[in-house]
Amino acid sequence: MDVPDDNSLDCLLSDQYIHLLDRLNLPAFTVDLSKRITAINNSLAALLEMDEAQVLGRPCRAVFRGLPCEADCPFQKAWDPIQDAREVQVFDAGGQRHQVTRLAAPLVGPSRELAGCVVILQDQPPLAQLIHRVEHDARNLKMTLDNLNIGIFTVNRGGHVTFFNAAAEIISGFKRDQVLGRPASVIFAGEENGDLACLKEAMAKGQPRPGLKTRITTPDGEVVPVRADYLPLINELGRTMGGLATLEDLTLAERYDQTVADRCTFDQMVGRDPAMQKVFATVQAVAATGSTILIEGATGTGKDLLAKIIHSLSQRRQGPWVKVNCAAIPENLIESELFGYVRGAFTGADRNKPGRFQEAHGGTIFLDEIGELPWPMQAKLLRVLDDQEFYPLGGRRTFQVDVRVISATNRRLERLVASGHFREDLYYRLNVVHIELPDLKDRRADLPLLIKHILRRLGAGRGRKTPGLSAEAMALLLAYDYPGNVRELENILEQALIICHEDTIGPQHFSGCLRVPSPAGRPVRRPPQADQIGVADGRDRILDMLHRHHWHRKKTALALGMDRTTLWRKMKRLGLSP
Questions:
Q1: First-to-last CA distance in the chain?
Q2: Which of 416, 442, 485, 550 would disulfide-bridge 421, Cβ 3.0–4.6 Å?
Q3: In angstroms, rounded to a whole number, what is the distance separating the alpha carbons of residues 461 and 472?
Q4: What Cα–Cα distance (Å) separates residue 137 from each residue in 131, 145, 181?
Q5: From CA 382, how far away is CA 477, in angstroms rounded?
Q6: Is 97 helix (H, G, I), strand (E, B) or coil?
Q7: What is the radius of gyration, based on Cα positions, of the chain?
Q8: Which of 310, 432, 435, 416 has its CA nearest to residue 373?
Q9: What is the per-residue DSSP string for 289-355?
Q10: H/E stretch holding 279
């Protein structure tokens, strides 16, 4: 058996090498020290539309017209594989031009002497098309995911965020540049978070964890209810390359469930101001007890909502919730409304009718605007608080009730007691636990959080993407004093949301009271509401408005910002008549 010499062995090995490149679809050929072609692979033959017989033994310059090899030929100078790669043009047998990337390397013998050269010609169009297709597909995928209404983000195997779409920004409150490249624990508020553990479990087991209801806390402290799905990202080889999470905002669904169940939670009342944190701490401490609670605060600060939250957190949450607006019921009807009446109590009373206290048995009764309660009714209410019993109108037998009383007022009951308009003993009976809600202008630090919270809720209620706020619009909102407090802020934002059909709310979407600056550069404040007027100057203010509107009670009540019945009751108490 003949043993090949070293040169023929080198040629044999180089031939095997270039045919191995066929598996990668890379055209290649070899030349000897005379710069004659010694071998080509099938990929090169297909590129040049030639077979081996046409090229073997011929000089490489004669076969590859236009191939500038002399300048960088491995035979001419020291070889640098980085500098050697260059884009060139070659022509096939039909004269068609091909753009290729040429890479060349020397072939050396056993003694490290130069024995020849191997050249690879990487055809660019297929490679370029492949890269373009991958980039195009990835770009299209990102654009598609970015325009979905559901939040989506992905992480790599190390748990670092690699993609974060626009909906995820809105839901979580994080901007992309705040999370991309950072651990996913940034979104989930810590490594110990259970949601992050679910994502890691899905990646570790290669199985999805769908439909988990959870909550995300935004950087501003707002708690957002979401439904999360966690999925592993698996490549074509079956290996987990990362994870994907989808976040569906459940704000609207949760509000619907709460409305159906007649429940409220702290998520509906937001605030980081120390005064609000004190309110939240007090509510959590007293909600589970049966203590009577008095809530004081200006109009629109959220007294009604806070009372309902207390009921929802109490042991009576399965019982009825009954609200009574003491200012909206005429004085001659308020007794029968609160305590009911028996058949024959008055003309037309042909049956027994239970009152609001009977309807609230086993639950909570909320007496709103308690400061407007007529003096005779205050005595009857005191007996209910003391003995948990009362006589219905026209009745001769008492009714026992088990109710918790929460009352609220936008007037200082202590001042009403001092002026003789409210019973002192009833005041102390109602004021077992006192909660005071601050005006919105006194907790301006909460405004950005409240604005985002309200916009999210209003947007969810209309089934639309939550719009952003321009810098000018935010400046106007932050500068205004809000005499109507949170209710006025809600009205302003709701109106802007209705008018705005773009993705960003601007100053042009606000009403005139915000857009017209005062001489000092701050928005103009409207005249004070009647509920902000003290007892001392209340009579003069009401009398002035009555004269302005020629004693027209409806117009006067509208100008004072109160109900017509309330105005009538105030006129009677203050002795005002034409």
A1: 135
A2: 416
A3: 26
A4: 10, 12, 22
A5: 44
A6: strand
A7: 41
A8: 416
A9: S---EEEE--TTSSHHHHHHHHHHHSTTTTS-EEEEETTSS-TTTHHHHHH-B-TTSSTT--S-B--
A10: helix 274-286
* pLDDT tens digit sequence for 337-373: 899 888 877 777 778 888 899 999 999 999 999 998 9
Q: How many Å separate Cα 64 from the centre of its chain?
A: 63
Banded pLDDT at 22 (limits 50, 70, 90): confident
Give yes or no for a contact between 360 and 403, defined as CB atoms under 8 angstroms apart.
yes
> CA 30 to CA 36: how far, in whole Å?
8
CB of 542 closer than 8 Å to CB of 571: yes
Task: Give the bridge partners for 36, in sequence order.
Answer: 59
Residues 6+ apart with CB under 8 A from 324: 337, 338, 356, 365, 366, 367, 368
Q: What is the DSSP letter of 67?
A: -
401-440: burial string, b at 16+ Cβ within 10 Å, e else: bebbbbbbbbbebeebbeeebbbeebbebbeebebebbbb
Backbone angles phi, psi at 575, to 5 degrees: 70, 40
* Sign, CA torsion 517/538/564/302: positive
Tally of helices (H runs) and strands (E runs) in the chain: 25, 19
Indicate the residue type of 533: I
Residue 416 to residue 350: CA distance in whole angstroms: 38
Burial classification of residue 305, based on how many CB atoms lie within 10 Å of its CB (0-12 exposed, 13-18 middle, 19 or more buried): middle
Beta-bridge partners for 39: 30
The C-alpha atoms of residue 481 and residue 466 are separated, in whole angstroms, by 24
Phi, psi at residue 208, to the nearest 5°? Answer: -70, 155
pLDDT band at 129 (very low <50, low <70, confident <90, very high): low
For the record, the structure tokens of 98 come out as: 């091909």
Q: 330: how many CB neighbours lie within 10 A of its CB?
A: 11
Q: Which residue has the tokens 């790669």?
A: 85
Interatomic CA distance for residues 411 and 408, integer angstroms: 9
d(CA 388, CA 158): 63
Q: What is the pLDDT of residues 195-224, one digit of tens each?
A: 888 888 889 888 888 777 888 888 877 778
- The helix (H) or strand (E) run that includes residue 379 is helix 375-387
Residue 530 contacts residue 543 (beta carbons within 8 Å): no
- Say if residues 345 and 388 touch (Cβ distance below 8 Å): no
Among 244-248, 271-275, 304-308, whose mean pLDDT is lowest?
271-275
Encoded tokens for 244: 């994907």
Q: How many CA atoms lie within 13 A of 65 on its CB side?
A: 8
Strand partners, 341: 353, 393
Which DSSP symbol is given to 523? B
